[in-house]
Design a protein that fits this description.
With 203 residues, this protein is an alpha+beta fold. It has five helices and nine strands, in the order H-E-E-E-E-E-H-E-H-E-H-E-E-H. It folds into two domains: 33 residues; 157 residues, Glutaredoxin. A nine-stranded mixed beta sheet has the order 1-2-9-8-5-6-7-3-4. A hairpin with a 4-residue loop joins strand 3 and strand 4. The radius of gyration is 23 Å and the shape is globular.
């Protein structure tokens, strides 16, 4: 039995030694070993986090492939993410019954007026009927945004959205660059610079 006790004691000492080494490493350089499956090459890893109005825009380490989500415009005509290939888009998933969504929509309209064009567009995708989405944009006197509606009820599950508003930056190849959950002041300097910086980088 004595040899079993000695082995147990040695094993316990090794565990303590490893733990102390981990603590010392944190104390010296603040580093923590990467979790399995979340390394720098994992597309789930956030390579960059940008603070926007107290919310965190997470840019992924690698672009994420997205399905060709289908929706419709205010006239009921079919549309999809694929229609925007060739342009970087800021896809805002929102709803007319969501107060934070309603509050940030004018800022998205101003961002689109400032940066929108052949290379970039804000796409406002409502979890409502086309008529409700269009009526709200008219109410706030949006001048550049066109309303789209998730008529098939697939946006949240297809895009992995768990709360509204959620905004995705999608590249010209239809891949997700990053996202922000919650409302943000999209027309203010940090957000505008984020968009302009990406457009310059990808040009």
């Amino acid at each position: 039995m004595s040899w079993i006790l000695r082995i147990s004691a040695v094993a316990a000492a090794l565990v303590v030694f490893a733990a102390l080494g981990f603590i010392a490493r944190e104390a010296i350089d603040g580093s923590v070993p990467e979790q399995a499956g979340a390394g720098k090459d994992d597309p789930r890893a956030a390579a960059q986090i940008v603070e926007l109005s107290g919310q965190k825009f997470q840019r992924w380490a690698k672009p994420r492939a997205l399905p060709d989500l289908r929706f419709s415009d205010t006239a009921g005509r079919p549309a999809s993410l694929g229609d925007f290939r060739g342009r970087t888009i800021l896809l805002n998933v929102w709803a007319t019954w969501c107060p934070p969504c309603r509050e940030e929509m004018p800022a998205l309209d101003r961002l689109n007026a400032r940066v929108g064009g052949d290379k970039f567009a804000v796409v406002a995708l409502a979890l409502d009927s086309p008529a409700k989405a269009d009526a709200f944009l008219r109410q706030i006197k949006a001048t550049t945004l066109q309303a789209y509606a998730d008529t098939e009820g697939q946006a949240m599950s297809t895009l992995g959205v768990t709360t509204v508003p959620t905004t995705l930056l999608i590249d010209a190849q239809g891949r997700e660059i990053g996202r922000l959950s919650g409302a943000a002041a999209w027309d203010e300097r940090p957000a505008v610079e984020l968009i302009q910086s990406y457009l310059k980088e990808s040009s």
